[in-house]
Amino acid sequence: METKYIFVTGGVVSSLGKGIISSSLACLLKARGYRVTIQKFDPYINIDPGTLNPYEHGECYVTVDGHEADLDLGHYERFTDIQTTRANNVTTGRIYQSVIDKERRGDYLGKTVQIVPHITDEIKRNVKALGNTGKFDFIITEIGGVVGDIESLPFLEAVRQLRWELGRSALCVHLTYVPYIAAAKEIKTKPTQHSVKQLQQLGIQPDVLVLRTEHDIPADVRRKIALFCNVATDAVVDSKDVDSIYKVPLTMHAQKLDEIVLRLMDVKYPGEPHMAPWLDFIAKLDAATEPVTIGLVGKYVELQDAYKSINEALLHAATYADRKLRLVYIHSEKLTEADVDEKLSGIDGVVIAPGFGRRGIEGKFTALRWCREHDVPTFGICLGMQCMVIEFARNVLGMADANSTEMDTKTTHPVIDLMDEQKSISNLGGTMRLGAYDCVFRPGSLAARAYGSEQVRERHRHRFEFNSDYRNAFEQAGMECVGLNPDTGLVEVVEMPSKRWFLGTQYHPEYSSTVLSPNPIFKSFIQAAINYRNEK
Ligand code: GLN
Questions:
Q1: Global pTM exceeds 0.70
Q2: CB 461 near ligand 1, within 6 Å
């Protein structure tokens, strides 16, 4: 089958969930047996989101090939089990960088380099890059931002040109917002009409409209929107708020979004998508009533997207264990000796979050000491694992000023230290140890038992590492380095076998947890939390 391109744009306001709609459509097409991938084009000028802080952009996701990516790529992977790469996330910055490099090389042969056609050609080249591999039947391309933004204009111009060139092999899905005015008790279609007009002014006629709404949209309102926007009535689909994002593929399928897309693209669609495993997950999600309470200790807990992949990985694991995840956010900057008892007492398991910099770090040590002394299941991820090591050094090994050199360059016990390969690096963008690396476990360790394997590959995003000079001291005192990188010896996993479940990973297992393939270490942690709850 010739590769088909589906473009997803957004109108009216941001945060409508284009990523979830794109993921849901991909999930349905994949369940019909097609080879699908999703890519995101972000109109900002940063080369990638790796240099953006979570206040700006939520979590930074990491692909297996070590690209720091938009968090929507996390949704793509969780909904489809596909592995994305650097090619799945392109920003304006990358487009311009590549065009400017070409200009400096002289590739444009004396021509004036312009937004049209040079920037738009570069966008089109990137849109088609995954399609040209021949590995996919459908490429879903999500355009970040909102129609009408100055920044997204070149991307929309590229979409217009591609639709013209590709004919029925290209399709545009536009997501808009339909507000409800409570005082008038009315659903309002005007913002949708305006945003479609804006798209049309740019030369793009949407084929499918997805209406985000908090209320049911009556059939006559849908017909009205169809009429004003030149879209078939059955191609106006609504996406009403649901209690879990994982139900969106089902609500889309109930309105035949997958069939409409296939019909409009002249693809035959025999039968139904194979959604049985997905439905099993949803059934468990709905059936779970018994809670498991997990505390997440971090400094960005007020931002709902800052630890997105961790939240989702915990949810996957809890759901498969037939428990309802109750996630309690614990602000690491506000956690002190005075209130740690009160804040952690009712909790079944504690996650110490990843992060950068000194802010909030003392609260992580306070939480870790309490958890270690009370033998609560505890899971440290990346900086969380590094804090586990520092707290142990300070309070068990008696190294009072032990620290990471990220936090204190003058510490006499740098138990966490900058990796050698990092010492000569000055640019901050894209220079961490990124992406998937192997980790080999000590046979019989908690980590090996959790994975049911002695070797795994998980993703990383860090500059600092466990300082191997201290390995013996830690091992003898009961914190064991049970996971190592086979090539460099870098410590990937530490654990305390004397505890119920006390383990830290230098890598980020949350990035690889999906609905149909939950991450084993999260499953093991959640099971330990459930056991602990039952014991209490
Ligand atoms: N700041 C730490 C490092 O660079 C941990 C990074 C993280 O938690 N992702 O090593």
A1: yes
A2: yes
